[in-house]
Prior knowledge:
By secondary structure, this protein is of the alpha/beta class.
Amino acid sequence: MPQQRRHKTKRRPRGRFPGLYKAVSAVLIVAAVVAACAIFFRVGEIQVVGNHRYTAQEIIDVTGIQNGDNLFTLDRAKLAREIQNRLPYVQTVSIRRVLPDGVIISVTEGQAVAAIAHESRWWLMDSAGKLLEAVASPGDYATVTGISPLAPAAGTNLATDQEQRPRLTRLRELLEALEKNRLLDELDSVDLSEDYRITFVYDGRFTVQISTALESPNQNETPLSYWLHRFAAGVQNPGVSPNQHYRVDISDNQTLHFIPE
């Protein structure tokens, strides 16, 4: 029997470094994409939304973004921080790209709710304790006494020395609770000079004295938020005369007392 011939399949020659070729190809593709982004995606339009106190141009000027800038090399987080640092009334910032050439800067602005004295000036602050600007007088804003600012500067949070930090904490909690219960607009003054209680004047006729040792029966609310919610309800009580001044005593964990003056 004649021997059958073995047919050998010819193998396609392989390169010596197939992995290297793939890596180089991937790098070239990425480089091409980056180059395309650099060439084609450039800033052509900048929009600012949510601003009221600052003009759109003021906000754009802080970022330094200009038409023709590379859309994909913008450091959005850094630019947002710069806006917040240099424009104190800005609370939040988001910057997003809108292809092919747009940038939208969205801001929310805070507002002053109180003023605190330091040397010969008054510093306006928002409900979170952020200092907004220095002014000659408090104007119509609620005044805060019994606490001394430490090296105040626009755009920074109100700070005090170590001894007064408990009072600073109480102030922040009070402003937060007042805001939550929609009482900030009629706040006239806050006195933190006594460690055992907070005194504030509301609507020009309610002098509220609230103990710092109060508790809240509701685990989802701070003591101040709980008792100020009850105070807000009490103000609307038909038995509370609109022409009478009251001292409101909130010193125990049972009830609050509207005492005519």
